[in-house]
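Whether sequence alone determines local backbone shape is best considered at the level of individual chains. Part of our work consisted of pairing the sequence of a single chain with a tokenised description of its backbone. This step matters because it turns folding into a mapping between discrete strings. For completeness, the protein is quoted in full, as a sequence line and a line of structure tokens:

_____
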Amino acid sequence: MSDHQEYWFCVKHHRVETADNLCPNRHRLGPYASAAEAERALDTTEERNAAWDNDPKWNDDDDADDGPDAPGDAAGRGV
């Protein structure tokens, strides 16, 4: 067994967890390399979401490059 400790943040209980006290996957963010990183999980998520919201490639309104799964594609999906 590895002696590398991993940490998760439980969004249900708002606490850092380890392999000894894990909630189900649906309630966890991680794994993280340290308890401090896990403690900042919600802040990190918020920062990443803000960056994606402000990324012109992520938030592009140009329909020309939406790919084959875009509404109204050749297969008729999303129409």
User: Anything to note?
Assistant: The radius of gyration is 19 Å. The first helix runs from residue 35 to 39. Helices lie at 35-39, 41-53.
